[in-house]
Amino acid sequence: MVGKSPVPLGKFVLVLLRPRTPTGHPAKGVVGDRSLVVADVFRDGHDSVAARLVLTGPGDDEPTYSPMTALGNDRFEGHVEPATCGMHTLAIEAWTDRFGTWRHHLEARAAAHDPDVEVELEVGARLLEALAPGAPSTLRPRLAEVITTLRSVTCTLATKLAIALDDALAAALAPVVDLHDLTASAPVGLRVDPAWAKAPAWYELFPRSEGGFVGTGKRLAAVAEMGFDVLYLPPIHPIGTTHRKGRGNTLVAGPDDPGSPWGIGSDEGGHTAIHAELGTAAEFRTLVADAREQGIEVALDYALQCSPDHPWVREHPEWFHHRPDGSIRYAENPPKKYQDIFPIDFWPADDADRVALWEACRDVLEHWIGEGVRVFRVDNPHTKPFVFWEWVIAEVQSRHPDVCFLSEAFTRPKVMHALAALGFTWSYTYFTWRDEAAELREYGDELATVPDVDYFRPSFWTNTQDILAGPLRDGPPAAFALRAVLAATVSPNWGIYSGFELCENQTQSDANTEYLHSEKYEVKARDWDAPDSLVPLIAALNAARRSHPALAEMATLRFHHSTDDVNLLVYSKTAPDGTDPVLVIVNLDPLLMRDGQLRLDLGALGLGGGGAYEAHDTLTGETFTWHGPDPYVRFDPAEGRVAHVLALRPVGA
Amino acid sequence: MVGKSPVPLGKFVLVLLRPRTPTGHPAKGVVGDRSLVVADVFRDGHDSVAARLVLTGPGDDEPTYSPMTALGNDRFEGHVEPATCGMHTLAIEAWTDRFGTWRHHLEARAAAHDPDVEVELEVGARLLEALAPGAPSTLRPRLAEVITTLRSVTCTLATKLAIALDDALAAALAPVVDLHDLTASAPVGLRVDPAWAKAPAWYELFPRSEGGFVGTGKRLAAVAEMGFDVLYLPPIHPIGTTHRKGRGNTLVAGPDDPGSPWGIGSDEGGHTAIHAELGTAAEFRTLVADAREQGIEVALDYALQCSPDHPWVREHPEWFHHRPDGSIRYAENPPKKYQDIFPIDFWPADDADRVALWEACRDVLEHWIGEGVRVFRVDNPHTKPFVFWEWVIAEVQSRHPDVCFLSEAFTRPKVMHALAALGFTWSYTYFTWRDEAAELREYGDELATVPDVDYFRPSFWTNTQDILAGPLRDGPPAAFALRAVLAATVSPNWGIYSGFELCENQTQSDANTEYLHSEKYEVKARDWDAPDSLVPLIAALNAARRSHPALAEMATLRFHHSTDDVNLLVYSKTAPDGTDPVLVIVNLDPLLMRDGQLRLDLGALGLGGGGAYEAHDTLTGETFTWHGPDPYVRFDPAEGRVAHVLALRPVGA
């Protein structure tokens, strides 16, 4: 065809700048949230142009249109606000604004007393005739009147020009979409998650330590009172006995050692079975339903690996790696060995075996979705093929648009980002190992920057069942408190592994981040009513997160300075429109009193007017009245104060 | 299919970072030039990986492979060096380095005295058997010997390990491409231009002022002696008489006024005809051939517009815009009118008419290519459809891979970039209006930045037939000299419009940049042998550009500082590999002596060692011996010195 082009024969060049992912995979949004769209839109010549966004959701008969606004220099922006979960398509449409162009030129001609202006009035009359069918019926009589006047042989030129250039006419015509020279961009994907997926708080517990599903159900009220949105359970499946690890990750298990929940599969079943000691399938469904009633989603662990006793090992030896001696290859990171775990070979020699395997893995998800689960925490996704995740997540979400996945990939940055790009809803992050002020600032800035915010949803975990790091190791309660404040207010998503609120601080050794008496290998009894627990702080943090839309944002994070930039971390967030300024100041030193004067960028907080402002501490209920950019703050761990989480407003507002 | 993906079922994620264009159009290279390719390459898991580049030129039976090197953190880079003009495709291939992975693990196992090591030796033996067919025949006996040893029942484990881990074996196997898990990226386009297209110097003249083609032929030697690579001629076609503009752009032409060459077309013919006063087709072909013999390409002007007398107006009224009164719409930018020019309507109502028009426009290019022309300067491409350019350039270059196009789009930045992305070889730039040190630094930095350098080839013009701007207006010779130095050394491509070397400095008015007695509307007689012309400086600049590969680069441009950052512009370039450091210092004040101490970043110049260095001035032949980063410089326009263009080298090198 003459005129082959990425946008075949379109008059416009349309370059989508945001949302986008580096790999061309879909960006992300959530139901009801306004997502910013930025594009370069231009055509040849000097005509006025207009553009709009076209959002089409799964099952939509008609797309939803929303306007784009010219920012100057050929850049346009607009917003989409998806109403349903699932994979949407987003496109840009641009057209020539014929009326605007004609009016602009007519003004210039009139001012220059151009003798050709009469011909141009007829051009305008014809244009209005062409636009009339697309105009609201209430406007049509007015258009007919204008057309008649423009063609009148009795009206004066001055009258005609006055009518043609009437601002009211232009305003009335502005919403009439001309669609002349209409050019549409290639559509891109926008994966829309449920509204709650934007900023969930996670709580992890081992159900066996709580007495199984029934006992865990008794903890639901406490988890809900702390304000958590997701309750994540490590694998709930039968645990193998062959090479089972003993307490403290010893190579030989004692007769009473329960084994690691990640050693999945025994004679009792594999990934779709429930460990008998936890309860029945009915009890599990009850737990999921009871949790949802309290506003909590139960998340299961999706760990694609098998104990040597898993039924798949017998039934599908072709799904595993084999060694020359005929044995199945267990998991290793030489010289480390994990004999209790067989990794799956996602690329069997026969492609039919691969298809069967991938479908079986998908069916595991389908099984638990059938049991009511909508959230999966995926174990080590970076050791399985990227294309598998891309396929299985799209497969599942095409049938169950509200299902979400958390990527547990603590690995290289580009791998973590690729997993987010190809479908994972959220991702664990390096936060767990970022302690110093400078590295927290650098990491926060990185995550707040486009294009990260368009597809990579960071989840900040204070700790996990594998990781007790940084100031938490042998740390005082203040260390736990400050890490909770950071996780809950820097990132829209955060989580804790149970025991955190009790300040469990003992590691297995100085050489690793494993817990002493790791719950992975034994049942733990805890005194949930212990004094001095962090439950009130955690509840206050999650309450602040629910009251303040600013805390659900990543892109608006800004760091400020103080006279002690080593020990005090000072940052703010606002809602996307700049409202709801929240200022957080954290003393990173859990041991010593630290104080200083802030160096706030009040303009970034919408307080550039110079007047006084109130700072309401959402953690303590105190309200301070401050003037200027350098209020004094003081934190003494001995007094139990590690941070301020401050809602700001001008005095009198 | 199970596993749908942008890279179907590939194990790798491959993200090309450079070369690329914002719109996904092909990047650019030139024959014989090494182009940098940067990509992120990774797969799941922890195996060692390798990657290579695959370059396929037009008509290639086999692609050319070149290695990629791991830079760490999943980033790889390599180079391609295309050998022919035309559209190439570039892809990345990645695979799992099985031998490297196995060897790495074997080392860890051996160090840990792993009892499983014997099984792993058999794994290695099988792997070497698999690799042997791809190894050079000289290596195969050695591989057979290693395999036998690994399986020997008499050899000690220590012997086997020593042989398996022998560095010589690893080195010998390194070039053996395993291609296990081979994954290829989607190919992208790489348009390859002739070698000379990387850094041409342009000279524009009106042939009618030289006495037509024969007279212009007599100027060739002088143009060649100045070191220019391209001789650009404004349109050479018959000029219309209807509404012809008179001298000084007056509305009514006198009987002897020759008219603007851009008023193309008369009874004598249109875009494929030659104005009789310039000479014959044979004389034109002679000019093109003579020029090429002297190393100069003749560039024609491709101006898609018609005078009212153009044959297309009669033969194809459907190719023009019509007004309600039946008249053809002339060019306007209301209230400005250009009655001597009819713009073409590239979108006739009937698509068959559009196809006929676009093909006629293409055939104009084909005609002149048939006459020996290989370079076109395209007039106002931003007022014609982007898709037209994309199509016509690809059409022409598919048949004539060495044909190149210069975009005369002095318009908004994104439009200029889009034209470059969709096919234009070079682009005029804003240089002509950038005078101050700060704005020159900003603009230079912008052009030197990825991704611009991968597709946007800037051409810096001191002046054009339309533009006499900045310090040139009523300026002294020093103003012309300093602008020549800037254009010739900041940008790889530069050009002048004739008369520049004679320092023609009078404008039509203070309100515009038009020349007094504009050559567009009258024939100009010039005294080429006038004393004090800039011919020697221009020749020296072009000679320096040919001797120093650094001056053909854009991406290596770096600005330095001095004690007078307002008046002294200090910058350097090197070859891509850091060699050939060239330092330029320009006094931007054409009226006053300016001096100061430089603040050089000697590390960026490859002179970080701290010793003395020589600065050889390519303009004057002087050599200075300098120590340290702050030599003193002094420029006095009264003494005729406006700049240094210095080739640097360490003393003793």
Detailed description of the structure:
Two copies of one chain form a homodimer. In chain A, the strands form five sheets. In chain A, strands 1, 2, 3, 4, 5, 6, 7, 8 and 9 form a nine-stranded mixed beta sheet that branches. An eight-stranded parallel β-barrel of chain A has the order 10-11-12-17-18-19-20-21. Chain A is built from 15 helices and 29 strands. Chain A is α/β, with parallel strands linked by helices and 653 residues long. At the A-B interface, strand 3, helix 1, helix 2, helix 9 and helix 10 of A face strand 3, helix 1, helix 2, helix 9 and helix 10 of B.
Helix percentage range of chain A: 25-40%
Greatest chain-chain contact: A-B, 65 and 66 residues
Query: What's the oligomerization state?
Result: homodimer
What is the residue-averaged pLDDT of chain A? 95
Structural class of chain A: alpha/beta
Shape of chain A: globular
Strands of chain A, total number: 29
- Provide the β-strand percentage band of chain A: 15-25%
Largest beta-sheet characterization of chain A: 9 strands, mixed
- Our count of helices of chain A gives 15
Low-confidence stretches of chain A: 1-7
What distance lies between the first and last C-alpha atoms of chain A, to the nearest angstrom? 63 Å
User: From the alpha-carbon coordinates, what is the Rg of chain A to the nearest angstrom?
Assistant: 30 Å
